[in-house]
Automatic annotation (TrEMBL), chains A, B:
GO terms for biological process: methionine biosynthetic process; threonine biosynthetic process. The active site is at 206 (proton donor). The keyword Protease does not apply. This is Homoserine dehydrogenase. It catalyses: L-homoserine + NADP(+) = L-aspartate 4-semialdehyde + NADPH + H(+). Keywords: Amino-acid biosynthesis, Metal-binding, Methionine biosynthesis, NAD, NADP, Oxidoreductase, Sodium, Threonine biosynthesis. Its EC number is 1.1.1.3. Pathway: Amino-acid biosynthesis; L-methionine biosynthesis via de novo pathway; L-homoserine from L-aspartate: step 3/3; Amino-acid biosynthesis; L-threonine biosynthesis; L-threonine from L-aspartate: step 3/5. It is an enzyme of class 1 (oxidoreductase). It comes from Desulfofundulus salinus. Belongs to the homoserine dehydrogenase family. The lineage of its organism: Bacteria, Bacillati, Bacillota, Clostridia, Eubacteriales.
Amino acid sequence: MQEPVKIALLGLGTVGRGVYRILTGNAENIAHKVGAPVEISRILVRDLTRDRGIPLDPALLTDNYQDILDDPEIAIVVEVMGGIHPALDYVMAALKRGKSVVTANKDMIALHGKELFATAAASGAGLLFEGSVAGGIPIIRPLKQCLAANRIQEIMGIINGTTNYMLSKMTREGVDFDRALREAQAKGYAEADPTADVEGLDAARKLAILASIAFNSRITLNDVYVEGISKITARDIAYARELNYVIKLLAIAKETPEGIEVRVHPTMIPQNHPLASVNDVFNAIFVRGDAVGDTMFYGRGAGELPTGSAVAADIMDAARHILYKVPGFIGCTCYDEKPIKPMAMTESKFYIRLMVADRPGVLASIAYAFGDKEVSLASVIQKHTDGDRAEIVMVTHRVREQNLQDALRLVGCLSSVDRIASCIRVEGE
Amino acid sequence: MQEPVKIALLGLGTVGRGVYRILTGNAENIAHKVGAPVEISRILVRDLTRDRGIPLDPALLTDNYQDILDDPEIAIVVEVMGGIHPALDYVMAALKRGKSVVTANKDMIALHGKELFATAAASGAGLLFEGSVAGGIPIIRPLKQCLAANRIQEIMGIINGTTNYMLSKMTREGVDFDRALREAQAKGYAEADPTADVEGLDAARKLAILASIAFNSRITLNDVYVEGISKITARDIAYARELNYVIKLLAIAKETPEGIEVRVHPTMIPQNHPLASVNDVFNAIFVRGDAVGDTMFYGRGAGELPTGSAVAADIMDAARHILYKVPGFIGCTCYDEKPIKPMAMTESKFYIRLMVADRPGVLASIAYAFGDKEVSLASVIQKHTDGDRAEIVMVTHRVREQNLQDALRLVGCLSSVDRIASCIRVEGE
């Protein structure tokens, strides 16, 4: 057994506490597997006096990052504070000094991955970030190593627990969006300001990270088309069931001859698709490779111990790399530069729900408008509603996004059409 | 880019061809990721003249292993011939010379893992075997690295594609075992002699490997309790549906205070369990860790390209380790010696189907026998069948295997009981 590998935690919030609990609780096994004990020698916190709810030697705490940076014995800095500032400065400073960094910070990796990896490569330090996507589910290392011999063709993931909880609840209980959101907030699954989760931004950041690794080309948040779930109604969920679909907020990335598609939006998938039965706060990432075929990785996408599990595994790998004197063992894998396919050029099937006047010829005029833009319809359901109104639900065949949007613009102008109530992409068939 | 890493394939059957196709087809990406090209410089075959169905430089082929062993430029030996002899001798010889070995040979690893890892450790060579369990699904590396900070509590896997195909077919179409087996054979999913698959031996070998890694203690094939699917009837499958269960051949390993449980047997699991919707030849491994909670890994458990994907990923890792001069990067992780819990001491719920005389007092005498052995019943269904016979289906509460077997012995002696038609463990609730 070698000398302990000393690490510092930056932050002692939810994930930090999880990491602390795991490293201290499973210390003996971790030492066996690494070949040396892993010792938390410093913890950076803002408030030295606050009760952390865990048994902790107060001498470990510091509110001065310089104490950590200047300590030559600290080989690994574990950033679990979140946010961009000051996390980014701290991490950059550590990497410049050759300290390896483990982080669970999706925002920082998604927005500043390029400079972070360049800095790590320059100093030879390691930079690991398994905890930044899908909590405890192993997905970064599987993509970087286990599936490395594949050309990844497609990723489809449920990578936001808040929205998956809400959609599961809406599907199971028929409640509407507002009610589902309130319950998610009451359970602590959604924040007071739920925008980042509900509008798909959280998923988009994670997708940018996953797609960059899968396709070996840097994809940034701006490249990702994003649409949230706030317009999903109980009615659409009921129709989805009728059509044998389930609605999920999916993060989708595909490599095509015209470039890489990256998009986050509510999606109908067949009820027998492996992702369809991923419910509540669980996450899952479906990966299709040219050799391996279809695979899926499932588990808890957030939480103190699940995310702590991913961070602790990275710490163990980083420690092993340091012991073997190969700290920057697997660096950035974005060795390629591939174009992004514009959203207008992507192809999907679409579910469309229209509120229309219930009179002869309406369906014909709608069908004509779709046909004019080369949108062909796979199925149509028409239901009478109140008074002289009707509801038409259509599912298209595969069509280019641009054509579909053009057709919807035409349909929206028809005097017999009150409104386009919903338009949801259909995938996974 | 560094000089090529040279490798030799032992065998050019299904998996060997897959590895060849992947390494040549994705050569450029693989070189980028490894940091050097991976070059197949020799292939050992029995018959030099046979057509292999792939474009191949005949100069690569040899029927003399000594050519490979004596070539100092060959750094990695990839054993994809299968079986114990001569694979074991070849692999041992390579490891002794310090060549790293990648293998997909579950039999060899399950039966000779200990000596193989000791030999690799002595010479500092790498020994990787991701392809030996569950084909293309990443599971060895996730257990060894991604979930390394966890105490693994339980593994439940569908790790035999043949039996999963058969049970899926029996469940979906109501056909009986013989018909399902014939169709599996016609599709090439089952061998002419299907014993190893159908009787659970194939799954048991894989489970021995998985459990050894999960619990850091060597588990051999002899430790595994094995029961196959040949006694499963269409009738049991129909009852399973009525009770909201699905029947799967599960490989189960649990760590308990009394030791490690390792068993392969047909199992009823709730229809909403993540493993319940894993159908046809797909495999999946459900892993529960103390930190990460429930996770699952899903994909194709066999086949040229899926298994080739796992072997090629190991080759890439082994090559990277060699370039970094750390060939034996992650060695054997069986640093502990834990006792095996005798099957009689394990606990499950049980589904039991009895054929009995349809007359008053029969159920009472059966219930009395169960109660006498402290087996408590959760539900009972009694159905009249032909003539004066009836069928009783019971599900017990959790009970010790020993008590259940004792109770069944008593019940079997009752004059009103024709036979104990089925006894299937229930898990995952």
